[in-house]
Amino acid sequence: MSPALAFLGLSILGTWGLASIGLIVGGVILIFFPGNADTNSDPMVGGIVLLVAGLASGGLMQLVLGPLLGIDPPLPVKAKSIIPQAKLDKWASAGFLRDLPDGKPKEIRMHSLRVAVVRMGDRAYAMSGLCPHARLPIAGFPGSPIKAEPVQDDCVMCPLHGARFEVATGKVVRQPFSSQFNNDHPFLGRLQAKLLFFNRKAEDIQTYPVRIENGEVLVGLPK
Ligand code: FES
After folding, report:
1. Which of 72, 177, 191, 218 has its CA 20 to 30 A from that of 133?
2. Do the beta carbons of residue 58 and residue 51 sit within 8 Å?
3. Shortest CA distance to 69 belongs to which of 16, 20, 125?
């Protein structure tokens, strides 16, 4: 996706998202803090209408724009859906090791799967391209300010809300919205934790076996 298209999509999503949040917040205010306005209309009814409109608008936004931008619905992925490595034996090429950025995840579409391939020197690892917290891209949105984070302490960090996963095992070692992440990223962290994400947990992420043959990175996928 070109940076211009990504920027346009994110702008539309942001505007639409803010409008939806505005409707929801307006509805909550009318329902819980109706004040003493002397009008013929019932603030409770108005609040419920705004709330339902905001939720419907937010849902519609995800249904319409999400697939266009390659964004999946922001639902958690449970660790029980992890496929054991022994069953991942349909090998596919992720390209040559030398072409991968060193120390950062890069998302590659492989047989309709979104896979994040991580080169670390002369080794490579592969994991799901979607963070289990809210199914957002663990390698960020290329061309946008939300980019792949460098691997630290053998862990990949999701740039959206800061969950961290061991690159070799997929084990979650830090949950989203940690106080450190929220301090460093007030918009993606603290604000989103308050307004958008009631789910603050991430489970382990799917990893895929990797082989390197003649410099080519082969990833084991499900059949
Ligand atoms: S989507 Fe990755 S931490 Fe929220």
Report:
1. 218
2. no
3. 16
Per cent of the chain over pLDDT 70 is 91
Tally of domains in the chain: 2
Q: Do 119 and 209 fall into the same domain?
A: yes
Asked whether 200 and 175 are in contact (CB, 8 A), the reply is: yes
User: Quick one: 59 and 98 in the same domain?
Assistant: no
**59 Cα to the center of ligand 1, angstroms:** 19
Sheet with 105-110: list strands edge to edge. 105-110, 113-120, 123-128, 207-208
Q: What is the pTM of this model?
A: 0.73
Q: Compute the distance from residue 180 Cα to the ligand 1 centre, in Å.
A: 15
Our mutation pick for probing the ligand 1 site, out of 72, 131, 185, counting the most ligand atoms within 8 A of Cβ, is 131
The answer to whether position 132 is within a domain reads yes
Calculate the CA dihedral of residues 104, 107, 113, 117 and round it to 10 degrees. Answer: -30
The predicted-structure confidence for 113-141, as pLDDT tens digits, reads as follows 999 999 999 999 999 999 999 999 999 98
Same-domain status, 52 and 103:
no
